[in-house]
Design a protein that fits this description.
single chain
């Protein structure tokens, strides 16, 4: 017999397993992770995409989460938007000092540099696009704040990104959770999501390496 969603999501360390987080902490745990990953420096390693997808699956399956989908999506969006707001205000307050901060166990200047390059390339829409790129989504609002991005512009793109990412992936999980083929291959689906989320980071690294090589030739 095929395993249900609550039995098939053992990916990565146990304490980062989306199913384990949800079964242990419920909706409050989901909101805390979304908030932290959206704008706190320590949140970049948290499983945002897979957590939201799993949340949708479990809402559809009726396991651990008995709240209606619309309420879960609303609260997730609020947590995501507030997380980015905190990240922006933190970056605006700390400013250039953050870029001089030495590397630590949970902080690397390279993460900040990647977010800065991403923001520079895409402009304000980076606030939306970064939502779908692990690590970058944590540091982009901080970079926006440090760069004194217009607050109204940031707030607008922040809300749009929060809705598309927070509600979008959760609803996708709920819809696909009703498909037998997906339910029977949940681990493969989540692995695929992880791989897809890493693709933008890999592309950015390859582009940066190519630019460095071109400068070396020049």
């Amino acid at each position: 017999m095929a395993a249900g969603p609550a039995q098939a999501l053992a990916l990565g360390p146990g304490w980062l397993d989306p199913d384990g987080l949800i079964s242990a902490f419920g909706l409050l745990g989901i909101l805390a992770v979304v908030f932290a990953e959206s704008g706190l420096l320590i949140g970049f390693f948290l499983p945002g995409d897979s957590l939201l997808f799993t949340t949708g699956l479990l809402v559809a399956d009726g396991q651990y989460l008995d709240q209606p989908l619309w309420l879960v999506c609303l609260l997730v969006v609020v947590a995501a938007v507030l997380g980015d707001q905190v990240g922006y205000l933190f970056g605006r307050r700390v400013g250039p000092a953050l870029f001089r901060r030495p590397d630590a166990r949970l902080f690397r200047q390279e993460h900040l540099a990647k977010a800065g390059a991403f923001f520079e390339r895409h402009g304000p829409k980076a606030i939306v696009l970064a939502r779908f790129v692990p690590v970058v989504r944590t540091f982009t609002p901080i970079v926006a704040g440090a760069g004194r991005m217009n607050y109204r512009v940031f707030a607008l793109y922040n809300v749009v990104g929060g809705v598309l990412w927070g509600a979008g992936i959760t609803v996708l999980g709920a819809l696909l959770g009703r498909v037998d083929l997906v339910r029977e291959n949940i681990e493969l689906i989540l692995v695929g999501m992880v791989l897809l989320s890493v693709v933008p980071v890999v592309i950015e690294l390859l582009r940066a390496r190519r630019r460095g090589a071109d400068r070396g030739v020049a």
